[in-house]
Records
---
Amino acid sequence: MKNIISIFGLSLLILTSCGGETVTTRSIQNNTANDMKLVFYIDGRARDTLFFAPSEIKQISISTSNKGIDEDPDCVFDIDSAWAGIEGKGVFTKKIQDQNNWISDSDHTKRIPPTYENTCTFQINLNDFE
């Protein structure tokens, strides 16, 4: 009986001492019926250019942290700004660097060790152009 209690105690100690993990996935969604071009600026320079078909969603990054913490995800990351273009539309006005412009969701997927999966989506709509 002592062995069973010792094994159970040791197992519990090992499981609770394991670190958790948080995975954050970031995506851009072309929420229009038009083809779209999107340019990301990092450190003031154009870095990446993506082309989107109508209604297409593309994953732009995944980051992991070895802390399983239940907090709002950081959707904004190294991008300073973005330019989007749709033929025949005006200037893109939505700020990608504003956390409030991202739709986010966090799921607690595992209790021991604590694991969270965050998703962040930046939607681009026709009314984001003036």
---
Amino acid sequence: MIKPLLIVSTVIEVGAGLGLLLSPSTIVWLLFGSSFDSPVESSVARVAGAALLSLGVACWLARQQGASARGMVAAMLLYNAAVGAILAAAGGNSDLVGIALWPAVVIHAAMAVWCVACLRIFATHATTESNRHLTT
């Protein structure tokens, strides 16, 4: 359950990161129904793209780490919950709604739930291991 989460996260974040790096205006238009032309806005979007690409690489590398991937899953929970909330607030409080906004909100919410489920597995496994050490 954890390895598939990290692989799916890799695919999503690398895809979004490359999209923002290569065509930031298109991604912004898909999310918010509005594009931008400012070099500053484009640069900020590309920085976000680089961050997402880095997050995807970190997920890919963490997929083989077993229990030590817990920190990565916790970070992904924070990221997905925050981005989902930010996008939902943007969609609920403005007319800036592109065709990909609400699907992105749903994807981030689903990924956050998946992260919580994985963290519960880590917690259950840790409790079992702790109890095993107490009885031996």
